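User: Here's a protein and a ligand (6-O-phosphono-alpha-D-fructofuranose). What would the complex look like?
Assistant: Let me lay out the input and then the predicted complex.
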Amino acid sequence: MSVVKTLGQFIIEKQKDFPYAKGELSRLLRDIGIAAKIVNREVNKAGLVNILGDEGTTNSHGESQKKLDIFANHQFISALTCGGECCLIVSEENDDPIFIESDVSHNAKYIVCIDPLDGSSNIDVNVSVGTIFSIYRRKSTEGKPTLQDALQRGTEQVAAGYIVYGSSTMLVYTTGKGVNGFTLDPSIGEFCLSHPDMKIPEDGYIYSINEGNYINFPDGVKKYIKFCQEEDPSTKRPYSSRYIGSMIADMHRNMIKGGIFLYPPTSSSPKGKLRLVYECNPMAFIIEQAGGRATDGFQRILEMEVESLHQRCSIFVGSENMVRKAEDMMMKYSPEM
Ligand code: P6P
């Protein structure tokens, strides 16, 4: 009978990978895991209590906020504030950065960028949603943290992860030494190691894109979609189109089965819809650590200049060979971008 390894045990065990670690990052990851369990409880019963529907407010991007969005945001901010290891939070739900100044966090050196409940528009129709987080070490060591500490390139991340609240609830994360997945066992209330050393297949036959935006896509994307819709002459296999409309769910499926997720520029989102700091950078870090590839069709996501907290970018992410094929189409048919 295999021994169950909990997230907490795994984090402590892996701490030896970081010779100078004093346990702060371990405690920070544990704090995120605790908040995830609380959010999971509410997501799972959302249909039963008055926590569905709109809060009647909008976030900084003019998007209506769901009650669960607000609840999840509050839970993660509270856990990070009380945990004492985080000095600055960037959240999709908050216009401005949240500087944490409390007795417990006076020496805190980590910045957490988070999308507390991505895909929340799917909650009311019972489709998987997720939390995405990205962790940096503060650049400035003297005085209080500054906004610049939150505007670091994706290559500077020390950890990143997501929680997918789906048919089961999983937490998947990396600290730069591979990717590991943990499934929540509700009977013991613990995330247990279920997917050690996750690797995304180098190739795949699933392409994931909102084809409703087809007429506005760059020519390179249109050509790539047409390529996927033709039978692969080398294997006689057709591709499948799968689009859940919840990035975490689409990406997690591709992590397991192989595939590519694309959110290119559209007329309503000329720079792409997804956010660099707390969606694309963490997912790019995870996918690269799992052996995949993440670009905007031309440039590596992790090397993109971060100019503002809520900036958007295009993303082509997933199995290496599929992303490279899409990039070839962009170079050939949309080089001007
Ligand atoms: P569209 C959810 O709102 C989200 O931010 C991502 O999770 C998802 O991939 C994308 O937007 C879906 O956007 O325009 O296809 O509905």
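Summary: The pocket of 6-O-phosphono-alpha-D-fructofuranose is lined by residues 118-119, 121, 210, 245-247, 273 (CB under 6 Å).
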